[in-house]
Amino acid sequence: GCVNGELKAPVCNFCNFLAASGEGSICIKANAQSCGECIQVAETCGWCSDQNFLTVGESKSARCDDLESLKKRSCAVAQIENPRGSIVVDKDTPVTNRKKDGTEKLNPEQITQIQFVICKSAIRPEGEPQTFELKFKRAEDYPIDLYYLMDLSYSMKDDLENVKNLGTDLMREMQEITSDFRIGFGSFVEKTVMPYISTTPARLLNPCTGSQNCTSPFSYKNVLNLTNNGDDFNQLVSQQQISGNLDSPEGGFDAIMQVAVCEGHIGWRNVTRLLVFSTDAGFHFAGDGKLGGIVLPNDGKCHLENNMYTMSHYYDYPSIAHLVQKLSDHNIQTIFAVTEEFQPVYKELKNLIPKSAVGTLSSNSSNVIKLIIDAYNVNHHDFFFFLSCAQSLSSEVILENGRLPDGVSITYKSICKNGVEGTGENGRKCSNISIGDEVSFKISIESQKCPLHSQPEVIKIKPLGFTEEVEVVLNFICNCQCAAKGEPKSEKCHEGNGTFECGACKCNEGRIGRLCECSKDEVRTEDLDANCRKDNGTDICSNNGDCVCGTCECKKRENPAEVYSGKYCDCDNFNCDRSNNRLCGGHGRCECRKCICDANYTGSACDCSLETSTCLAKNGQICNGRGTCECGICKCTNPKFQGPTCEICPTCPGVCAEHKDCVQCRAFEAGEKKDTCERDCSYFVLIKVKDRDRLPQPTDQSFPLTHCKERDANDCWFYYTYAIRNDTKEVYVVENLECPAGPDIIPIVAGVVAGIVLIGLALLLIWKLLMIIHDRREFAKFEKEKMNAKWDTGENPIYKSAVTTVVNPKYEGK
């Protein structure tokens, strides 16, 4: 049912908002003079009805401000007028859970598919939406009225033969969907004037050529009212004859208009209404009637006499927009069963007519039953879904609303099957809804202004194609409740010159002033102006206001956050000292040109913080014990130290080195300060411990601790810790020095001698090893050269034989 749709938008903190954005409150800018005017400015605006709320110099409009600002200005919550809207349910009928096989049979009027409610909404203008919820559930076995409107031009001759048995066949198939089904039949051709038909006497009797026997042309004829008898449908349709016309587009729009508006003739019930429009041609629309000399626009009224449309020659074709309106008004869902050739045209037409579908009609209309059932119910399992039907008529619900009052807007949010949400235009509809599925819609209504009259406005919301509707009665909140308790001609308003309501005077016509004390004709006089001069000066209202009826009304600045105040407008809240370019450093408020600082801040510009947490050093001391904290910043008193907490000392030694001499002289009576120990080293408390394990450890302390290890002139080590606890410096020192023992001479000498001997032996061994290696290399070289030596076997060059042979030159060998 309806739920309270009150939306409480966040109300900004006025002062913080102004500081951040530099803009004033929209409530103050409106300059509202009454509570009623104030609450119409914005949802966040309220009116303080406290009679003593205004200070000297403030105008009546200062009562109107955002809620947080009114509270900060000490207006009690009970005296802040800020009426809120609400929704009250007068009638709430849940959706019907009906079973097809149930024994209980309900009348169509008893079946509710969309939650039927009557809501009364009190709505406040300017941005306060009121939201309620509607539920929709497809009822099983919901009654259906189907009217079959057929083109009977000559090209549909073979189609008529197939339609003659449509009644009983469709009745049988529709039993799968509903037990309460009625069917009707009508036909159309064209306007009965030239040039749409031939007007010769012979052609008027038989418009077909050759031996074809056709009936006289007509515009639209209601053949059969809606009936639950399929045999009557077959019988009457069997008696129909084809007719003819001259042009290709047909006069189907005339027929659709008459089917929609002639409810009584057709027999429509308040159930699902389906109109099947079957044709194989295009259509004429508004303006085409001029070809036949018809210029009067279609009047959208019923003109059936003896079930025939009699004014086709008088009124033009209806426009598409006119058809859309009438089909929607009469909750008729249209199925365009057209041939493949004209699919693109009728698909474009479908996009303009809500809750319509387009199906591909075979050339002889043999598939018309499949087309109708598939278009009605996409989930029916006995038939193939035809590709040309983009949407199922019964599986989609689309909400529409009637005329909205001026300044009223409405938004929808759908929660569809499987939790799918839609907003904007998609928030009006849900698709693919099966029988038994329940979906819901959240509807928000918002008003931007009050109507000129005080009467309630009614908005009707309904789903396309259904007769059920939701009625929302809007009552506008245009005045405050306190106005009803107003005192007309109140003595509080200067001799009854106004009505005292909501803590202020609402002046009668021609009167002005906070108490309506002046007439508009006598606003300025010298005597009255004298009351507006401070200390008998020359400036009226300190030049920051106007003297109205002897009282200063301070001027308003461009930024409403900047206000003049005071009896003489001599105070303001924007001329105080600034810090970091912020008024009063952002830590206070400006009153009469003086900063009133917040807690923990001081100074003329509230720029001095009394908080000391920013001055704490690592050792937990303020400014490390070497400075003072002023306005949250350390001022170091020791010039050697610097930094935000006086912990940095570039020229200082470390803690251990700094205190070494004093610890040494006090603990061991030695060191460089031995003679001046009492004078220079009494600044800490000395505590001796027996060993290093007894020294304080950092993990055991809640204050900083330093461990030190230092060496004296005798090379002895001593250990100590240094810490500051509660402004007391403490030193823990191990009472015994750690001095190195004297050297043992004999082991050292023995070690040195042994080392020299061992080094000598090592050197000898190394020399001997090198010599052996060298000798072996030389011997190997000799052996190699010996093996490679070769001896020369030639004669001795100085050898001479002892034998001498002499030959007789005269010897001839004889």
TrEMBL record:
<feature type="disulfide bond">
    <location>
        <begin position="208"/>
        <end position="214"/>
    </location>
</feature>
<dbReference type="GO" id="GO:0042470">
    <property type="term" value="C:melanosome"/>
</dbReference>
<keyword id="KW-0517">Myogenesis</keyword>
<keyword id="KW-1015">Disulfide bond</keyword>
<dbReference type="GO" id="GO:0033627">
    <property type="term" value="P:cell adhesion mediated by integrin"/>
</dbReference>
<dbReference type="GO" id="GO:0045202">
    <property type="term" value="C:synapse"/>
</dbReference>
<dbReference type="InterPro" id="IPR015812">
    <property type="entry name" value="Integrin_bsu"/>
</dbReference>
<dbReference type="Pfam" id="PF08725">
    <property type="entry name" value="Integrin_b_cyt"/>
</dbReference>
<feature type="disulfide bond">
    <location>
        <begin position="554"/>
        <end position="569"/>
    </location>
</feature>
<feature type="disulfide bond">
    <location>
        <begin position="507"/>
        <end position="516"/>
    </location>
</feature>
<dbReference type="Pfam" id="PF07965">
    <property type="entry name" value="Integrin_B_tail"/>
</dbReference>
<keyword id="KW-1003">Cell membrane</keyword>
<dbReference type="GO" id="GO:0005925">
    <property type="term" value="C:focal adhesion"/>
</dbReference>
<feature type="domain" description="Integrin beta subunit VWA">
    <location>
        <begin position="34"/>
        <end position="480"/>
    </location>
</feature>
<feature type="transmembrane region" description="Helical">
    <location>
        <begin position="745"/>
        <end position="767"/>
    </location>
</feature>
<dbReference type="Pfam" id="PF17205">
    <property type="entry name" value="PSI_integrin"/>
</dbReference>
<dbReference type="GO" id="GO:0043236">
    <property type="term" value="F:laminin binding"/>
</dbReference>
<feature type="disulfide bond">
    <location>
        <begin position="48"/>
        <end position="64"/>
    </location>
</feature>
<feature type="disulfide bond">
    <location>
        <begin position="649"/>
        <end position="652"/>
    </location>
</feature>
<dbReference type="InterPro" id="IPR002369">
    <property type="entry name" value="Integrin_bsu_VWA"/>
</dbReference>
<keyword id="KW-0460">Magnesium</keyword>
<feature type="disulfide bond">
    <location>
        <begin position="681"/>
        <end position="716"/>
    </location>
</feature>
<keyword id="KW-0597">Phosphoprotein</keyword>
<keyword id="KW-0732">Signal</keyword>
<dbReference type="InterPro" id="IPR057073">
    <property type="entry name" value="EGF_integrin_2"/>
</dbReference>
<feature type="disulfide bond">
    <location>
        <begin position="478"/>
        <end position="482"/>
    </location>
</feature>
<feature type="disulfide bond">
    <location>
        <begin position="549"/>
        <end position="584"/>
    </location>
</feature>
<dbReference type="GO" id="GO:0032587">
    <property type="term" value="C:ruffle membrane"/>
</dbReference>
<feature type="domain" description="PSI">
    <location>
        <begin position="26"/>
        <end position="76"/>
    </location>
</feature>
<dbReference type="InterPro" id="IPR036349">
    <property type="entry name" value="Integrin_bsu_tail_dom_sf"/>
</dbReference>
<feature type="disulfide bond">
    <location>
        <begin position="662"/>
        <end position="739"/>
    </location>
</feature>
<feature type="disulfide bond">
    <location>
        <begin position="35"/>
        <end position="45"/>
    </location>
</feature>
<dbReference type="GO" id="GO:0007517">
    <property type="term" value="P:muscle organ development"/>
</dbReference>
<keyword id="KW-0479">Metal-binding</keyword>
<feature type="disulfide bond">
    <location>
        <begin position="592"/>
        <end position="623"/>
    </location>
</feature>
<keyword id="KW-0325">Glycoprotein</keyword>
<dbReference type="GO" id="GO:0046872">
    <property type="term" value="F:metal ion binding"/>
</dbReference>
<feature type="disulfide bond">
    <location>
        <begin position="597"/>
        <end position="606"/>
    </location>
</feature>
<comment type="similarity">
    <text>Belongs to the integrin beta chain family.</text>
</comment>
<dbReference type="GO" id="GO:0016477">
    <property type="term" value="P:cell migration"/>
</dbReference>
<feature type="disulfide bond">
    <location>
        <begin position="493"/>
        <end position="505"/>
    </location>
</feature>
<dbReference type="InterPro" id="IPR040622">
    <property type="entry name" value="EGF_integrin_1"/>
</dbReference>
